[in-house]
Amino acid sequence: MLTPTITELPLPAEPTSRDSFLSHGPELSGPSLIRELDRRRSDGIDVRLLWSQRDGAILLAVSDSKTGDAFSIEVAPGDALEAFHHPYSYAAFKRDHTPAD
Predict the structure, then answer these.
(1) For residue 93, what pLDDT is reported?
(2) What are the residues facing 47 on neighbouring strands?
(3) Closest by alpha carbon to 83, among 61, 52, 54, 51?
(4) C-alpha to C-alpha distance for 66 and 12, rounded to whole angstroms
(5) Which residues face 60 on adjacent strands?
(6) I need a labelling partner for 85 at 20 to 30 A (CA). Which of 7, 8, 23, 71 fits?
(7) Mean pLDDT throughout 9-27?
(8) Cβ count within 10 A of residue 19
(9) More confident position, 99 or 59
(10) CB-based contacts of 36, cutoff 8 Å, min separation 6
(11) What DSSP assignment string belongs to the chain?
(12) By C-alpha distance, which of 83, 93, 18, 94 is closest to 49?
């Protein structure tokens, strides 16, 4: 019986595409720092609810593939579900009620 000889080790897998919602800067480096809590897609609008494992922040990320528009906004933990179901209303409410610097 012959024993197979391995002459080359396989290369580690590389990601094939980047996540359009996350910047891959030094503050988000590492595979387990951002977790997707929920996602829904309807009529070209993609809504994602993300949680930062590092600081506990919750982020709502919205992308419209028809227009190319996208935005993200930090969400209070108690408002996460409401923001997920009504992202445009929540973003407009937050913009109108954000204190000026």
Answers:
(1) 86
(2) 40, 62
(3) 61
(4) 35
(5) 49, 73
(6) 23
(7) 55
(8) 14
(9) 59
(10) 48, 49, 50, 51
(11) -PPP---SPPPPP--SS--TTS--SGGG-STTSEEEEEEEEETTEEEEEEEETTT--EEEEEEETTT--EEEEEE-GGGHHHHHHSHHHHHHHHHHTSPP-
(12) 83
Q: Among the listed ranges 21-35, 36-50, 60-74, 78-92, which one has the minimum average pLDDT value?
A: 21-35
| pLDDT in the model for residue 94 | 81
Closest CA to 22 of 48, 2, 56, 45: 48
**What does the radius of gyration of the chain's CA atoms come to, in whole angstroms?**
20
Q: Is the pLDDT of residue 62 over 90?
A: yes
Average pLDDT over residues 33-62: 93
